[in-house]
Amino acid sequence: MSDYQDGRMGKVFLLGAGPGDPDLLTIKARNYLKISDVVVYDRLVSPDILELCPRLSQRVYVGKETGHHSLPQGEINRLLAQHALAGSTVARLKGGDPFVFGRGGEEALFLAKRGIPFEVVPGVTSAVAAPACAGIPLTHRGIASGFHVVTGHDALSSRKVEWEILSQENETLVVLMGVHSLGEIARVLMSHGRQADTPVAVIEWGTTPKQRVVTSTLSRIETKVMELGVAAPAVIVIGDVVRLRESLRWFPLESLE
Ligand SMILES: C[S@@+](CC[C@H](N)C(=O)[O-])C[C@H]1O[C@@H](n2cnc3c(N)ncnc32)[C@H](O)[C@@H]1O
């Protein structure tokens, strides 16, 4: 019997909360959420999902705005460990999937090093859910044979990004946290050979009633996004698959383009 099962220690559940639509929370995440004593959650976790927490559970907001960290990552790690060591069942709710640009790996490592039981429940990442709800398949026979997901947050400062690979015509590029650096990303891609007329979609608040999709080309998207005041959270999709949206647009709640 484990320390968690015999009640000597709590456990941390790193739960993917999905991209925004509460119906995209997995059944497993929902079940764990319902038995939690403490819920530690991020900014993009839907209020409808928080409604599922037990009435008496303690809720701790540790959300991060772009450029502002309301609680440093080290303190979040310590908070999770502290509650688990005190015997609590902790739900660590993270937007999308915990291991996709969510620092879930760092939290899991912190717990693993201390022998604190944890479990990871994958979530539906916005990197695929937002394009799906915008009517954009990330791969499509004859158009795109694969896709890459990068963050705009540090893509431009990281020497590790292989722009030649990301600029290939038959691949789709998905950028998270990229609205502020969109113009720069577009210019770098064009300088590595991606065509200026490559279609681009920016999906704001994908999967939710606030979903808005703006489309243009690599050379024009920055201006259009600025004119329309598109802001985070948004997923950027770059590649010929964006054209399929003209035929596959289906999302009933979508607002202006
Ligand atoms: C810190 S990252 C977390 C990503 C998350 N772990 C995931 O798998 O979706 C936050 C970024 O995810 C994207 N994002 C999350 N939810 C979104 C949504 N509903 N619509 C559009 N973009 C979203 C945005 O690019 C946002 O800046």
Question: What's the short story on this structure?
Answer:
With 257 residues, this protein is of the alpha/beta class. Helix content is 28%, strand content 22%. The site of S-adenosylmethionine (SAM) has 25 residues, from helix 5 and strand 12.
Give the CATH class of the largest domain.
Alpha Beta
Report the biggest beta sheet as strand number plus sense, adding barrel if it closes: 5 strands, parallel
Could you tell me how far the N terminus lies from the C terminus, measured between alpha carbons in angstroms? 56 Å
* Broad shape: elongated
Work out the helicity level: 25-40%
- What structural category arises from helix and sheet content? alpha/beta
In total, how many domains does the architecture comprise?
Answer: 2
The CATH topology of the largest domain is given as: Methyltransferase, Cobalt-precorrin-4 Transmethylase, Domain 2
Mean pLDDT: 93
In CATH terms, the superfamily of the largest domain is: Tetrapyrrole methylase, C-terminal domain
Main sheet strand line-up: 3-2-6-1-7
